[in-house]
Structure prediction request, 393 residues.
Amino acid sequence: MIVQRRAVTAVLAAATLLLTAGCSSDEGGGGGGGSGGNDTASPSRTGTQASPSAQATEEAPPAKGSVKVVRTVTEDLKTPWGLAPLPDGDLLVSSRDEGTITRVDTETGKKTVLGEVPGVSAAGEGGLLGLALSPSFASDHMVYAYFTTESDNRIARLLYEEEKPAGEQLGAPNTVFRGIPKGYIHNGGRIAFGPDKMLYAGTGESGDTGLAQDKSSLGGKILRLTPEGEPAPGNPFPDSPVYSYGHRNVQGLAWDSRQRLFAAEFGQDTWDELNQIKPGDNYGWPQAEGDSDDAAFHNPVAQWHTDDASPSGIAYAGGSIWMAGLKGQRLWRVPLKGTEAAADPQAFLEGEYGRLRTVVSAGGDKLWLVTSETDGRGSPEGGDDRILELQVT
Prediction:
């Protein structure tokens, strides 16, 4: 099955390359030569953002880790994208193209559709994307969703009323933030509440590369908002939601054990990136893709050829960042020592489950991993798409 999947994927990738000729997409772009399945990126570059003295106080995990697929939690999901663990251990998952939010019982795999988010306009890489629970979910039962409409990308919150019948459990969306540029490509979409209880959102430049360096634009940014959608107190630019800029298409957000923010984003033809995010910093796009000698740009912690990654979601567990790869069809482990990569990135599950969209901490040494074979760029087989439970070190 794996060989068949990889063979079909290779044919589709070649066809896509002929059609797009380096066009920006969630595949990362044209195709720098990849490692072709080695367990390290070819090459990866480790960042040097923190001082040596700061790094020396932190222990690094082992250079090599492990991944065990414990079980398949559920199957037959349609274009799954966002994932939000509920307090009781179940999961909420969004469908990009159908615009629905589904609850998955993690014990039985049973799926219950909460309802459809009105106003979603799914096309290309747009649709119903990231999900996050309110920091006060236990009392307010609010689910936040990032989605594409006819005119923009926006963030809304919806009341989840579990006592209502299936299909009718979502209240009307209350838009808290609007006006994020939309496009057929590069809609960003990942949202998460940080340790500070502020809402962070990764956006894309929607194919208009100039937006990334324009601090007055919401495209190609990481935004930091209050739960009500206002610019968060302490943001680096006065009265602005912009937290960092110079991004191409951010789809991965995660914090380490010391509350430092990391983000993954697509490159175009050469380098995909894992970045450590500092407020107000410029991450270079489109002037820089990957490592740069220009001191104006914040260099990545690690980088990959676009064939090997095209990263989407990331999670932190066991001292490492875990990064899901779409075109790369693998899960990357990046062991950290402070804000640097402590060793070369290591790849797992290469080609075994196809495209990988979202990875979320399940507590301790466990992760939830969402596949993305039904997104129009994969080669779906019986059971796709699925959520897997992983045990990692």
Notes: The radius of gyration is 19 Å.
